[in-house]
Amino acid sequence: xxxxxxxxxxxxxxxxxxxxxxxxxxxxxxxxxxxxxPLLRLRLAYPSTLVDLGRLPELTGVHDxxxxxxxxxxxxxxxxMRSSLVNSACPLVALTTATVADPAVRHRGTFGxxxxxxxPAADLPAVVLALxxxxxxxxxxxxxxxxxxxxxxxxxxxxxxxGEILLGARIPKLGDGWGYHYxxxxxxxxAWPIVGVAAAVRRSNGSIQEARIGLTNMGPTPLRxxxxxxxxxxxxxxxxxxxxxxxxxxxxxxxxxxxAQPDYRRHLARVLTHRAIRTAAGSP
Amino acid sequence: MTELDPGLVGEQIAESDxxxxxGGTGGEIGRSRRRKEDARLxxxxxxxxxxxxxxxxxxxxxxxxxxxHARITRVDVSGARGxxxxxxxxxxxxxxxxxxxxxxxxxxxxxxxxxxxPPMAVSEVRYVGEAVACVVATDRYRAADAxxxxxxxxxxxxxxxxxxxxxxxxxxxxxxxxxxxxTAKITSxxxxxxxxxxxxxxxxxxxxxxxxxxxxxxxxxxxxxxxxGFTLWTSTQIPHVLRVMLAVTxxxxxxxxxxxxxxxxxxxxxxxxxxxxxxxxxxxxxxxxRPVKWTESRSEGNLTVHHGRDQIQHIRVAAxxxxxxxxxxxxxxxxxxxxxxxxxxxxxxxxxxxxxAIYKMDAYEFGCTGVxxxxxxxxxxxxxxxxxxxxxxxxxxxxxxxxxGLDPVEVRRRNWIRHEEFPYTTIAGLTYDSGNYxxxxxxxxxxxxxxxxxxxxxxxxxxxxxxxxGIGVSIYTExxxxxxxxxxxxxxxxxGGWEHGTIRMLPTGKVEVITGTSPHGQGHVTAWSQxxxxxxxxPFEDITVLHGDTAISHKGMDTYGSRSLVVxxxxxxxxxxxxxxxxRKLAAHLLECSPEDLExxxxxxxxxxxxxxxxxxxxxxxxFTAHSLPEGVEAGLDxxxxxxxxxxxxxxxxxxxxxxxxxxxxxxxxxxxxxxxDVGKVINPLIVDGQVHGGIAQGxxxxxxEEAVYDAEGNLLTTTMADYLLPSAADLPTFVTDRTxxxxxxxxxxxxxxxxxxxIASTPAVVNAIVDxxxxxxxxxxxxxxxxxxxxxxxxxxxx
Lengths: 284, 800
Ligand SMILES: Cc1cc2nc3c(=O)[nH]c(=O)nc-3n(C[C@H](O)[C@H](O)[C@H](O)COP(=O)(O)OP(=O)(O)OC[C@H]3O[C@@H](n4cnc5c(N)ncnc54)[C@H](O)[C@@H]3O)c2cc1C
Known about the structure:
The complex is a heterodimer of chains A (284) and B (800).
Chain A: E1 7-9, H1 14-22, E2 27-30, H2 36-41, E3 49-52, E4 62-65, E5 68-72, H3 77-82, H4 84-89, H5 91-97, H6 103-108, H7 111-117, H8 124-130, E6 134-139, E7 142-147, H9 148-151, E8 152-154, E9 157-158, E10 165-172, E11 178-185, E12 195-204, E13 207-216, E14 223-224, H10 226-232, H11 239-245, H12 262-280
Parallel strand pairs in A: 1-3, 2-3
Antiparallel strand pairs in A: 4-5, 5-10, 6-7, 6-10, 8-9, 11-12, 12-13, 13-14
Chain B: H1 6-17, H2 38-42, E1 58-64, E2 70-76, H3 78-81, E3 86-91, E4 124-125, E5 131-137, H4 140-147, E6 151-156, H5 163-167, E7 180-188, H6 191-195, E8 200-211, E9 220-225, E10 230-234, H7 239-250, E11 257-260, H8 276-288, E12 292-295, H9 298-304, E13 308-319, E14 325-337, H10 346-350, E15 363-372, H11 386-404, H12 408-413, E16 424-425, E17 431-432, H13 437-448, H14 450-463, E18 467-477, H15 485-490, E19 499-505, E20 511-515, H16 524-536, E21 543-546, H17 564-591, E22 598-601, E23 604-607, E24 613-615, H18 616-625, E25 637-643, E26 652-662, E27 668-678, H19 685-704, E28 735-739, H20 757-774, H21 788-799
Parallel strand pairs in B: 1-12, 10-11, 14-15, 20-21, 27-28
Antiparallel strand pairs in B: 1-5, 2-4, 2-6, 3-5, 7-15, 8-13, 9-10, 9-12, 13-14, 16-17, 18-26, 19-20, 19-25, 22-23, 23-24, 26-27
Helix pairs in contact in B: 11-20, 16-17, 17-18, 19-20
Organism (chain B): Nonomuraea cavernae
InterPro entries (chain B): Ald_Oxase/Xan_DH_a/b, Ald_Oxase/Xan_DH_a/b_sf, Ald_Oxase/xanthine_DH-like, AldOxase/xan_DH_MoCoBD1, AldOxase/xan_DH_MoCoBD2, AldOxase/xan_DH_Mopterin-bd_sf
Domain Aldehyde oxidase/xanthine dehydrogenase a/b hammerhead (chain B): 43-158
């Protein structure tokens, strides 16, 4: 990697880190570097300073907070997918994280970096959105909470203000009776998703009580498939579910790229949503 | 998983699992030896060009054109020159008088146009990525920063991206002389008669997409001078050819140039080239008197490593109603890119005599037009011409089968050369020395469980299963062992096809082998050791193989075209025989008998019927001390040999592939893959398996994943691996491989070559399987790579 020149600091405390970011508007936080370094390599980003968040214990680890789990921003994908707490209390996060990239990337890339980067093609934003996660940020001015629905603003743009550090996210525990699935469609095992569908489904007596669906890469931000969610309320497994999932592309605005044109992405959203719901509901 | 006959699979696995351990002599040929090279490579004791450091070394970086086609009106490097750490900066103009033109060694036709190809553009750029200026700095970072300070003014010219458009009248021109690089035609038999009133006519057009060879080790060059001579370390497949070409291109006398290919991490043809960067590094070190090094980034490589394939293939078959082929007509457009590089125009021509493949027919016609476009030049890529030919004919054989309602294997059987007909001179004029398509096919079908899979396919069709099963057949032959020098001369190739080998028996009885081939991942060191161990009767461990340095390996034609073993391995064998001849004389002299009384076994000459003997090691020492030599015998036990084959070799095989196509998403997933190859005698089964596995993976990659995409303005869109998809092990099935063994008769080892076979065979096997899955829905082609989106669109097309 041959980036342009930049300064590098590795603060030992959160205050120092906030300070470093606040004092220089071209400074950037550095987490696992798995998205930032490629941008530097291609000289698509020219930060003046990289503020390495790697020595801030407040940002790492997974914590049980009663009705929710707090996942620290600097927790690596590998730690998240192996955490027994995440696996038991918010399994959708664990099983989605296991589909991210490859082991090497998962050992460096972080949960918070994935959210802060706000790439609509990344897998975790749709999951956090579907689960109504709450992101917690901190700056020199103090801490604030941002609901996932307000966090993802546009392509590669989050609600984080300059100088703000993402501390992590609160993931509500959904409780019993829920099933989960992340249906990721990609051409090679290590490739980014062309479309992804995160589904959480509460089911009883052959019908669906409640469903939450997050769509990856179906627009400039992750999206909820609200139309499907409401059509699924009380839907019986089988034709009713199938019909409900036909609305998966409603309100989406997917882009076209080398891997898929928008109409194909819309089609995939419908097929994959149906598969995600069926699997989450445990109905083959 | 498919049902595979457990007995057969067990046998197969048992064979490749039996890895031989060191010790003993004899019986080396045919043993699955672990590669001698690997311990060093895997533990990081490597010498990649980029690892090499010379005192006072500087780093070079190139500024590359962002335009596909433009006149250069101004290049100002002065902004770069003043920057810290910058030693020098140059434009193409600064080297205009000495850089010469990059060579094309294969003028395939009379009408060929070979445009001037300056290593650094001087007045016009013709593809995105062409070098226009360079910076030499004390480190890479400063060099990269300084590139941004160079100013270039371009006057845009129209891009020429599409081959058909390029040939229309009034198209913008890539070069003054027009967009046609060459035309070629071959006819054999009465093609008109063959097509006249033919009961069956198949007419198809296939597109060989453009591919980017992706060797693990990016290209790198280090050049240094001692004021008189020059040394160039470079990640190349062709140190010997390169040295000659550098001398011719730059005017530096050949004896003043030494080329070294240190450890080279793969090439696949992409390092069979004389590159702009190699020439420029040599000239830079001459001008600056300091060592200079250049290493490409992956994105720079995607833009500027020569590309592969990129042909439009029009293929027509005339057949009888029983499926027998009467005639075959092929017309190609081959994208040369912006310039003709080392063997660019020869690539489509390497397939010219292979479209007829394993089949008998009455008439054949081949035509090819080379086309200039404003894209990176194309050149050799694993298989070079043969994958294209095999793809088109094997795709069309399936179409013929479908047209006639025949099983695809059956239609091939009705046309192929039967084993008792070898040697067989084909309609295209090649003489296939040996082969047994029946044996390989029967074996493959048994391993694959062909009938069972056909039954499952029928069942899924009946049920309207959203996941359909397709079965792909590919029965190929190819042409290896490049090449008989005489035939290369006839095709106007600029060099011969012989290979050189040297044996040096050292005083202590150890053996140094020198080969003119230039391995870059294949395992020559191991295989050559096996040949020498058996022939001279010395232990495998006592042999070392030197290569890839023109100061050590003084003669050679290098490694490409699956030629190394078939030509270079045989040269080594011949050199061993010469050593044995001399050793026999010496032994007779020392044992006071006549040479005819000696028999050679297990590394020793023994007087027949006695226990009086001399080992080859004792003889090496005696030849070294030279205290008592026979009349006319010189000291030392060494020999040199060159081998020039009198024919190509023709590996063949049958590959079968089962693909599950998800008709809802368009995703194709390979479920099972069986390859039965006949590569003649096998020196090391483990190495052969490795070559077959890698080859199949690369062919599957063309079928499903890889495509270099240029937009209408000539910008390459696939500059990173996020856009240019390569499969990994996780995307591929477990390959079931097996062999039949019909020795080649054109060389004393009976070997045929295996470097490209897998790639040649697998692409059509996969696409045939996908089309086979979709055929009942009225689909008879999917363009490569068969992405889920393409399959889905094909299905959408017929749903309407
Ligand atoms: C080969 C490869 C394949 C990949 N495949 C996938 C995939 O399939 N799916 C997927 O979802 N992702 C994929 N990724 C991305 C990977 O998940 C990254 O780890 C993730 O996108 C970013 O996390 P990071 O820790 O590396 O962040 P960095 O790269 O360090 O940072 C990314 C951005 O977020 C900002 N940032 C990071 N942390 C914070 C913070 N705590 N507070 C404020 N700002 C912050 C940085 O300033 C930067 O702008 C892939 C990456 C690679 C290299």
